[in-house]
# Entry
Amino acid sequence: MKIAILTGAGISAESGLGTFRDKGGLWSQYDLEEVATPEGFARNPALVHDFYNARRANCMAASPNDAHLALAELAAGPHEVTLITQNVDDLHERAGSQDVIHMHGALMRALCASCDHRWDAPAAMAPADPCPACTAPATRPDVVWFGEVPYHMDRIMTAVAGADLFVAIGTSAEVYPAAGLVELAMGETLEINLEPSMRARAFDRQIGGPATETVPAWVNTLRI
Ligand code: BV8
# Structure
C-alpha cells in the first residue's frame, strides 16, 4: 500500500521540542513576524539567529520518541511510505527514517542568501559568518519562513495524490500549503493528533491521543 505521511510539531512534542500553537508554544514566546519571516531577518538577523541557535541546541539535546521510531519501522516494511514533514528538526532521521521530505527546510542546514550555497549548519550561527562558498556575510538557517515557497512541493503533491492512504500526524493544520494537502488525497485519509485539528472534518478518520501511544498502535495495525 502507498502511504503518504505529513508530520508537524506535535510528533516531536514528547521529545521535549516545543510546538508552535499549544499553550506556552513558540509563537507565544516569540513574535512570528520577527523570527520566521524574511522581513524579520532583514530587520534583525542577530535575533533570528539566536532563535534558531536555541532551537538547534534543543534539538541536539533531544532524542527521537516512539512515534518517530514507529514511522521509521513502517517505512522499512512492505508498504511504500513517503514521509513529509513540516518540522525542521532531524528527529525523523535520527530515528532511522530515510529520504525525509522537509517542506519547511531543516534546522541543521545553512543557506547563503547571496549565492544559494547550502551546507551543514554549525551549532551556532551569527550574522557576520562568511558563506563558505562566496564569503558574503549573508548566512541564514535553511528554513522556509512565512511568505517563502515551501520546498519539494511537486514531489509532495504527487505523493499525496497518488497515495492509497494519507495520514497527518501532530499538526494543527493552520499553516498552508501543508494544511491543504488533505484536499489532494484521492485515497483514505487519517488524522492522528492530540486533539482534532482545524481540518479534522476533512479526514475520513481521526485517532486522538499522544503520538508516542497512537502512532506505534496505528503502525501495528498495518503489519502484514
Ligand atoms: C507560502 C519555519 C506561497 C521553520 C514555518 C499572507 C502572506 C504570505 C503568506 C500567507 C499569508 N496568509 C497565509 C499565508 C500562507 C502562510 C500561512 O499558512 N500562514 C498561516 C499562519 C495562516 N504560509 C506560508 O507563508 C507558506 N508559504 O504560502 O508560499 C506558496 C504556497 C504554495 C505553493 C507555492 C507558493 C510558508 C509556510 C512555512 C512557514 N514556516 N516554519 C520553523 O521555524 O520551524 S511554519 C511552522 O508551522 C512550522 O513549520 C510548523 O511545522 C508549522 C505548522 O505548525 P504545526 O507543525 O502544525 O505545529 P502547531 O504547534 O501549530 O500544532 C501542533 C499540533 O500537534 C497541535 O494540533 C497539537 O494538538 C498537536 N500535538 C501537541 N502535542 C502532541 C500533539 N499531537 C500528538 N501528540 C502530542 N504529544
